[in-house]
Write a sequence for this structure.
């Protein structure tokens, strides 16, 4: 786990984060997020009670939250419950607070969109195009990106036809391709470019 002392700001409130290099995933201090979403005077007590309630409801999210040493307000490193993005969104669904409502509404919207995309997969492509356009990418860049996705799909179809297993075998082959054009593994190249997901 790297960069354990990174701080993200949300409405001028600090949220401690850590980047897991191996999993390529961000982890967030749960009590910090609870402090932002609830304005609780004692976010740690709120989290203890919320964990208890979620367990009683049969929610496994809290079981999968693990502890990580993070710098506390007094400068000392203390074991702190952390959650990845998916866990954090699930936890926010259980917080009865007006500040959590935008997250809940967004999750409901994304859920609706995914259901629509299951019914009509072409919507996925249309949403991707809209997202790239909103981010300011040119039509030429978008077309090149779509072509790259198509080439990657053809490659993975070929791997599937040859019984290559998704996961580690895909990663090995992807690293070989990356090494051939850049002289580095995929992870090394991401590190060089400062890319995180």
């Amino acid at each position: 786990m790297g960069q354990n002392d990174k701080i993200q700001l949300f409405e001028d409130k600090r949220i401690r984060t850590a980047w897991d290099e191996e999993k390529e995933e961000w982890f967030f201090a749960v009590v910090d997020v609870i402090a932002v979403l609830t304005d609780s005077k004692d976010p740690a007590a709120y989290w203890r009670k919320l964990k208890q309630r979620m367990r009683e409801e049969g929610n496994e999210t809290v079981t999968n939250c693990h502890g990580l040493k993070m710098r506390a307000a007094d400068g000392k490193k203390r074991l702190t419950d952390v959650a990845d993005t998916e866990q954090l969104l699930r936890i926010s669904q259980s917080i009865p607070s007006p500040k959590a409502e935008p997250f809940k509404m967004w999750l409901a919207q994304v859920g609706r969109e995914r259901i629509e995309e299951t019914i009509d997969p072409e919507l996925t492509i249309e949403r991707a195009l809209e997202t790239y356009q909103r981010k300011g990418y040119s039509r030429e860049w978008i077309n090149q990106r779509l072509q790259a996705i198509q080439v990657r799909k053809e490659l993975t179809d070929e791997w599937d036809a040859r019984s290559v297993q998704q996961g580690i075998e895909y990663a090995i082959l992807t690293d070989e391709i990356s090494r051939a054009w850049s002289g580095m593994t995929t992870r090394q190249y991401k590190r060089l470019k400062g890319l995180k997901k």
In short: The chain has nine helices and five strands. The mean pLDDT is 86. The chain has two domains: 2-116, 124-193. Residues 132 and 138 are 8 Å apart (CA to CA).
